[in-house]
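Each letter names a residue; the fold follows as tokens. Both lines appear below:
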Amino acid sequence: MKVVQVVTQMEAGGAQRIAYLLHEAFRNRGYETELWFLYLKRPAYASKGGVRVLVDHRPSLLGYCWLAVKLFAWIRLSNPDVIITHTHYANVLGQLLGAVAGVRCRVAVQHNILATYPALARYADRLLGTGGIYTTQIAVSNSVVESMAAYPERYKRTVRTIYNGIVLEQNERFRGQPLLNLPITSPKILHVGRLSPQKNHQVLFQSLQRLPGACLVVVGDGELRGALEQQAQALGLAGRVTFLGEIAPEEVRAIMHVCDLFMFPSVYEGMPIALIEAMAAGMPIVASDIPASRELLQDCGILLPADPQQFARAAARLLEKKNEASALGERAARRARQFTVDAMADAYESLFSSRTRPN
């Protein structure tokens, strides 16, 4: 059986990581599998086997027309049994062209709250989902399902929830290495995520101002990097904030083991991979009280309004009370064991194997 996955842009985001983890899992299970990105934003997976990129830059509106022609040709030539698409533009384009090309099993994965999609993508997604172009939709959390509450029943009846999964095993080769050029004795606060408005970095900076002596490590890249670096400098935090950019997943896990606290003040999320990985690393966590974080953390972290004063107060308590922080991290690590790549791949495999079974 051949499985093709399509993602809008190549970068080290959560949806891209899930697509790649599924790609590896399917290959290990004997499937013929490919992972396609519509365009290159950052070369996070460029050297990986079975990964292809249609164009090497973000296309213009006219460029999307040419990209659609190219994608259709690739689908026809590849002739997959299953097409799985991730992120809203790939869902719309990949599912529609997959239907026209006669792909029998078409799975659209909704990675975020639907109200956050751009207006045109949201309208097209609703139209295709209601019109039966998606044979199945995957919501990565109940929070995503709840964001469809006002959608037509014809749209919602194809939806099922499959939680994202992560690699739980740690890479010992990276553990304990001096990856951070920071004072050993300084409390280190970690944040992992794209540098975008959704992640609400201002709360991190303003919290850090209230935590003298602490350092902040920011992993990820994105369109706001320059502005955030300038903001950190303007707030007098330049020597206390380290921007690491996009780094390998095993290095992210290693950094989680040498940092003291994970802070996650997102405005909205679908099911954040970085948060699950911080849980798996046994980190004490302070996160914004949004539906996805509430669903994921339950009683395994501190959930608060995204207010710098409240975040700083909670962080100061956990940095001081080591036993409380350790107990919180242990509960988080136990809960993270539910969210594995194998469980995720099993659910997808069960779904498309039944869809592609001959009548």
